[in-house]
Amino acid sequence: MRRSSVWAALLFLLIDGASRACTVRRSGSSAGRFANATLVRLSEFLSAGYKKGVRPVKDWRTSTIVAIDLMVYSILNVDEKNQVLTTYVWYRQSWTDEFLVWDPEDFDEVKQVSLPTANVWVPDILINEFVDVGKSPDIPYVYVTHNGLVRNYKPIQVVTACTLNIYNFPFDVQKCSLTFQSWLHTIDDINITLIRSPEELREDKSVFMNQGEWELLHVLSNYKNFSVDYSDYYAEMKFHVVIRRRPLFYTVNLLLPSVFLMVMDIVGFYLPPDSGERVSFKITLLLGYSVFLIIVSDTLPATAIGTPLIGVYFVVCMALLVISLTETVLIVRLVHKQDLQPPVPPWVKYLVLERAPVLFCIHKKHRLCSRLSSQASDLERYKDGSYGTAQCGLHHTCELGRRLSQHDREGGLLGLHLPPPRDAAPPVMDSILQEVTAIRSFLEKRDRCREVAKEWLQVGYVLDVLLFRVYLVAVVAYSITLGTLWSVWQVA
């Protein structure tokens, strides 16, 4: 019985020794596989006892200094309606981790190593203006140097809120801010500084894609600390991204067509005001400009707080076209249907036909008046046809016959030495004289109507010239004002 128990104990010791030998053999083979892996040994050395949830300082009174940097790569979208700016930036931040320090001589002179971001402490620095999560690539590693410097470099698609001023569109310059700050830690725990100097950051455009609608002018930086409840102070670094729109596309597609239509409206004043072609021409221009505004309405930026100046420019141009059409209608109404109008008042003759040509230097007034008179007489002859010619001949013949018959009667009576009778005219001659008198009064009335028509036509032409000059001065002054403003904004 004792022998069996002894043999059982010996067998147990043999089995246990064999199992321990296998375990040692396995561990020896594993250690042999990573025997020369310096990075593995370094990683195990750094991760041994590391607590990523604790701020990496040995003295809790020491503040962790986080140095940050920003490089604008591209302007993806500027949404004026929603006041949102989408940019693609290269963001860099670095800080000192006092727990990730080693001696390079102990690890084959390795001075830096990449570690997973999830295994090290990372500051909670965010952008205050974030309104949406962009499609940023995930960079899962950070670089750590032997003296504990951690570098976290990553590209970010930033979708931020920005107050966009579109009044100067398309010559506008926008200034949007990206504010980096720790969301939780106060300035006693985390402070923020710049990796580069503000001058280098301002003029750096080395990575910016300069082929889009927007041009990067500069990036300004501003550091400040603030307090919400006057007890805890927070550090923030604000970057002001200043961009300018390239106006060539909008100048060619918006401004030039409008300018061409306004030039055609000015040219339309050279059409004769006594013809109906000017009215139809200006109505066509007004309809064309309305269609143009409908087309470009989708191109103009729209916000709930303001309207760009170019929108005001289009509205004023439309108003000028309406004023031009109204002036044309009034002038055409003035120079047509003159037979239904009373004579020109004396004050209108004095102001329009005498004083206005002198004050406003309307030259060749007599030639204009003679031309108007000839046009009016030609128009009347065209309307009357042969009727006027026949009546004028009849009037001349009757007048000549009346004079000859009176001469013959007087000569005959004088030859007979008889006194002329007081009322010797037969009834037929009385009726003929009455008809001739009626014809003569009709012709005189028609001549007076012609004179009234000529005067109103002259008034219409003079007023047309005056209103054209006033309209031209208004258009030129408006164009110079807008051009000066846009030039100053573009240079600024």
Question: Would you mind describing this structure in some detail?
Answer:
The chain has 492 residues and is an alpha+beta fold. It has helices at residues 2-33, 38-47, 198-203, 248-267, 277-296, 309-335, 346-359, 365-384, 386-415, 427-491; strands at residues 64-79, 84-96, 112-116, 125-127, 130-133, 141-145, 149-161, 173-182, 190-194, 214-227, 233-245. The strands form two sheets. Strands 1, 2, 3, 5, 6, 7 and 9 form a seven-stranded mixed beta sheet that branches. Strand 10 and strand 11 form a beta hairpin. It is rod-shaped and about 155 Å long. The chain starts with a helix and ends with a helix. Residues 18-31, 364-373 and 375-418 have low confidence and may be disordered.
Keywords:
single chain, 492 residues, alpha+beta, 11 strands, rod-shaped
Short description:
By secondary structure, this protein is α+β, with helices and mostly antiparallel strands. The chain is 50% helix and 21% strand.
Secondary structure: elements and pairs:
Elements: H1 2-33, H2 38-47, E1 64-79, E2 84-96, E3 112-116, E4 125-127, E5 130-133, E6 141-145, E7 149-161, E8 173-182, E9 190-194, H3 198-203, E10 214-227, E11 233-245, H4 248-267, H5 277-296, H6 309-335, H7 346-359, H8 365-384, H9 386-415, H10 427-491
Parallel strand pairs: 1-9
Antiparallel strand pairs: 1-2, 2-7, 3-6, 4-8, 5-7, 6-7, 8-11, 10-11
Helix pairs in contact: 4-5, 4-6, 5-6, 6-10, 7-10, 8-10, 9-10
Please summarize the sheet with the most strands.
7 strands, mixed
Q: How many beta-strand elements? A: 11
Secondary structure: helix percent: 40-55%
C-alpha geometry: rod-shaped
Q: Which structural class fits the helix and strand makeup? A: alpha+beta
Mean of all residue-level pLDDT scores: 77
Terminal residue distance: 109 Å
**Beta-strand proportion:** 15-25%
Unreliable segments of 5+ consecutive residues: 18-31, 364-373, 375-418
Tally of helical runs: 10
**Rg:** 50 Å
Q: What is the N-to-C order of secondary-structure elements (H for helix, E for strand)?
A: HHEEEEEEEEEHEEHHHHHHH
